[in-house]
Design brief:
By secondary structure, the protein is mostly beta strands. It has two domains: 4-107, no CATH class; 113-397, paralog of FGE (formylglycine-generating enzyme) (Alpha-Beta Complex), CATH 3.90.1580. It contains three helices and 22 strands. It has helices at residues 160-171, 195-208, 247-255, and strands spanning 4-9, 18-23, 26-33, 39-45, 51-55, 60-64, 71-77, 87-93, 99-102, 112-115, 118-122, 144-148, 151-154, 215-216, 234-235, 277-278, 296-297, 330-336, 358-361, 377-380, 389-390, 394-396.
Length: 397
């Protein structure tokens, strides 16, 4: 048995109409609301048949008949025509028979997407004897199950215009930055900002929006981080403001609901899907069998030289509606770089307590396809800006 939810988004005035129609042993739920992006269907699959008890106007789904101690997967598609291709959306660990999970959000913060709570395989799943070649990270990205709570993420990398708007407000309100930030063009990712600049920018964005800042310079969380570059930055994880994603949050978001795949959309990459430098199998040694190229920098965007960025949102989004989660620009994360990851716990991990480098994720337009894999991870000196590193913000749900 399959249980379906139809999410039909249209119209200019917010309205929610929920009709329950019995279909075999499941429920079909039709939702007509305003956050227009198109139609979406959802189904739950797992070790036993389930029943949806309710689908609420806040986007939470109540369902029953689950087997505790197992995982269920919510899948999605945009049409129920013959040959429907269901895609994984989120994997739900089950501890009781009746569960409530937020699947969608009808009142998203502007420019952000909901990343639903759930478990996922973090790391390079494809190194485990699956006959897939040229996948590095054997020692620093061994796969493990990680649970991440729901959060919101910017659908795009912070671009130059957004950076400058908050930067101007911040410098007029007591903030100090070491680097002013650079960008190839106004709608390209801002780069050449170090980790400390990004963290302070997050606090300024929070305060400008009337939200509680996340980052402080004291363990008591009384002194908002506004100036300097101090190793001891403290995070208030309960605050409502903007922050950098943890490494686990970034990877879960990048995968878009797909477990065990190389890229946000699957295992192959081409320059029609992302901004990177093609190196197909046989073109040079070693080449990458999963790279469909063409070879070299993306021909549509190579003009203008370094940095080899493209306007944000130039390629199709992933399953969570996020752009540029493979290529275009590296992204700063909160965590200190270290192995193994999943520290201090495998539930909402925040990384090692201390280190010398902060995690950067994603790839850029200058590097090869392996760098843009969801599992790929680097460490970068937090005080060292780079023309290939930008960032995006998240907020708690």
């Amino acid at each position: 048995m399959m249980t379906f939810i139809q999410n039909d988004k249209k119209g200019s005035v917010m309205k929610v109409k929920i009709n329950f129609i019995l279909v075999a042993m499941g429920l079909l739920v039709f939702i007509n609301h305003a956050a227009a992006q198109g139609m979406q269907f959802f189904q739950i699959t797992g070790p036993a048949a389930t029943t949806i008890i309710a689908f609420n106007p806040d986007g939470t789904m109540v369902w029953s008949n689950a087997q505790p101690g197992t995982n269920y997967t919510v899948q999605t598609c945009t049409s129920l025509i013959s040959g429907t291709n269901w895609m994984d959306y989120v994997q739900l660990p089950v501890t009781k028979g009746v569960n409530t999970n937020q699947i969608v959000d009808f009142s998203l913060p502007a420019g952000m997407a909901l990343i639903p709570a759930g478990v996922f395989i973090m790391g390079n799943y494809l190194i485990n004897g699956n006959s897939i070649t040229n996948d590095p990270d054997i020692t620093n990205a061994n796969p493990m199950n990680v649970y991440v709570s729901a959060f919101y993420m910017d659908v795009n990398l912070v671009n130059s215009n957004e950076w400058q708007t908050i930067y101007n407000w911040a410098t007029n309100n007591g903030y100090g930055f070491v680097h002013a930030g650079l960008s190839k063009a106004p709608n390209h990712p801002v780069t050449t900002v170090d980790w400390y600049d990004c963290v302070k920018w997050c606090d300024a964005r929070s305060q400008q929006a009337g939200l509680t800042p996340v980052y402080y310079t004291d363990a008591n969380l009384t002194q908002v981080y506004t100036n300097g570059e101090t190793t001891n930055v403290y995070a208030n994880w309960m605050a409502s403001g903007f922050r950098l994603p943890t490494e686990a949050e970034w990877e879960k978001a990048a995968r878009g609901g797909l477990n065990g795949k190389r890229f946000p959309w699957g295992n192959l990459i081409s320059e029609s899907l992302a901004n990177y430098c093609g190196l197909t199998n046989g073109s040079l040694i070693p080449g990458y069998s999963y790279d469909l190229g063409p070879n070299g920098y993306n021909p549509a965007y190579v003009g203008g030289g370094s940095p080899y960025t493209v306007p944000v949102g130039s390629f199709a989004p992933n399953g969570y509606g996020l752009y540029d989660m493979a290529g275009n620009s590296y992204e700063w994360c909160w965590d200190w770089y270290g192995t193994p990851y999943g520290q201090p716990t495998a539930s909402d991990p925040t990384g090692p307590v201390i280190g010398s480098q902060r995690v950067t994720r994603n790839g850029d337009g200058f590097n090869f396809a392996w760098v843009s894999r969801c599992a790929n991870r680097f460490g970068s000196v937090p005080s060292a800006p780079n023309g290939s590193i930008g960032f995006r913000c998240v907020r708690g749900n």
